[in-house]
């Protein structure tokens, strides 16, 4: 091989090496960006799951309260229940009844 061919071969190797380095750099850049996006999405997913749990707990609490209110409404439509409730709350009595308070105030 003569000197000119050796120089051309070195030049081609250098060009090839530069192309490989450029492709590796682009590949590593893409992998880095993808990794950052995955971490951001993971954090967002975690926050969303935590919020979902909080909202689900709040919804369960409201449903429970709603059920209790429905029961209360049903009870308040019953006249006997209202009479009994008023008598116990305000110490009213029927004729001939004596009220004893055993509660500790």
UniProtKB/TrEMBL annotation:
The chain crosses the membrane at residues 20-38. One of its GO terms (biological process) is cell division. Keywords: Coiled coil, Membrane, Transmembrane, Transmembrane helix. Residues 45-79 form a coiled coil. InterPro entries: DivIC, FtsL/DivIC. Pfam families: DivIC. This is Septum formation initiator. The lineage of its organism: Bacteria, Bacillati, Bacillota, Bacilli, Lactobacillales.
């Amino acid at each position: 091989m003569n000197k000119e061919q050796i120089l051309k071969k070195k030049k081609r190797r250098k060009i090839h090496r530069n192309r490989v380095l450029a492709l590796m750099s682009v590949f590593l850049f893409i992998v880095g960006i993808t990794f950052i996006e995955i971490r951001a999405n993971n954090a967002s997913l975690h926050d969303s799951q935590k919020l979902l749990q909080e909202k689900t707990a709040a919804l369960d609490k409201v449903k429970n309260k709603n059920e209790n209110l429905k029961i209360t409404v049903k009870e308040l439509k019953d006249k006997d229940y209202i009479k009994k409730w008023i008598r116990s709350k305000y110490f009213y009595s029927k004729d001939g009844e004596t009220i004893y308070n055993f509660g500790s105030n």
